[in-house]
Specification:
Blueprint: E1 2-8, H1 13-27, E2 31-36, E3 50-58, E4 61-62, H2 64-72, E5 79-86, H3 97-105, E6 109-117, H4 125-131, H5 137-149, H6 156-168
Parallel strand pairs: 1-2, 1-3, 3-5, 5-6
Antiparallel strand pairs: 3-4
Helix pairs in contact: 1-6
The chain binds flavin mononucleotide.
Length: about 170
C-alpha cells in the first residue's frame, strides 16, 4: 500500500511516534512517506491508500498546521487513521472528531486512533507548577506526581505500541 504519515509536532513527541509507525510499516514492506503537515500538498492525499494524521494537543486541540492542511483537502484517501500525544492523564478521544466527520462525509473510513502520553517539554516545569497553584492541595499533588511520572515519554514502550498499532491497521 501507498501510505502517508502527516504530523504536527511542536516539540518532537508526535514526530517520534510518527517515525516509529513508519518503521513498523516499512518492516511490513509498505511504501511509506512521512511529512510534517505544513509540507503536505493537500491535493496529494487522494493518491494514497492510507493516510495517518497525527498531532500533539495544545490547549485541548490539535496543532494549527494539521487543521490548516485538512481544511484544504477536497479529495480524500479511502482510509485514514489518527494519532495524538498529550500530557494529560486522560485521553483526547475527540481531538480529530471534526476532521473525522469530514472524512466520513466524503465516504472514506477512519480505521482507528492511537493515543499516547507525551511529556510537556514546551512549557518550563516551573511555569507548569505555577499553573497548578490554584488547584486544591490534593489535586495539585496528583498533578505534580503525574508530571513527574510522564518524564521521558513517549518512551520505548510507547514507540513499540505505536508501531504495533500502525501494523495492526494493515489487515483492516
Ligand atoms: C502550549 C502547549 C499547550 C499544551 N496543551 C495541552 C493540553 O491542553 N492538554 C494536554 O494533555 N497536553 C497539552 N500540552 C502537552 C502536549 O500535548 C504534549 O507534550 C505533546 O506530546 C506535545 O507534542 P509535540 O512534542 O509533538 O508537540 C501542551 C503543550 C504545550 C507546549
Amino acid at each position: 500500500m501507498k501510505i502517508l504519515i502527516a504530523y504536527h509536532s511542536g516539540t518532537g513527541n508526535t514526530e517520534k511516534v510518527a517515525k516509529s509507525m513508519k518503521e513498523g510499516l516499512v518492516e511490513e514492506g509498505q511504501d511509506v512517506s512521512i511529512l510534517p503537515a505544513k509540507e503536505v500538498d493537500p491535493s496529494s492525499l487522494k493518491s494514497y491508500d492510507l493516510v495517518f494524521l497525527g498531532s500533539g494537543i495544545y490547549g485541548g486541540a490539535i496543532g494549527k498546521t494539521m487543521k490548516d492542511l485538512m481544511s484544504k483537502v477536497t479529495e480524500f484517501a479511502p482510509k485514514f487513521a489518527f494519532f495524538n500525544t498529550h500530557a494529560s492523564p486522560t485521553a483526547y478521544q475527540k481531538a480529530f472528531s471534526r476532521i473525522g466527520k469530514k472524512i466520513e462525509k466524503n465516504n472514506s473510513v477512519v480505521l482507528g486512533e492511537f493515543d499516547c502520553i507525551g511529556e510537556n517539554i514546551g512549557i518550563p516545569q516551573e511555569k507548569q507548577i505555577e499553573m497548578l497553584s490554584k488547584l486544591p492541595a490534593e489535586q495539585k499533588k496528583k498533578a505534580e506526581e503525574h508530571m513527574e511520572k510522564i518524564k521521558g515519554r513517549p518512551d520505548d514502550k510507547d514507540l513499540e505500541r505505536a508501531k504495533e498499532f500502525a501494523k495492526s491497521l494493515l489487515n483492516k
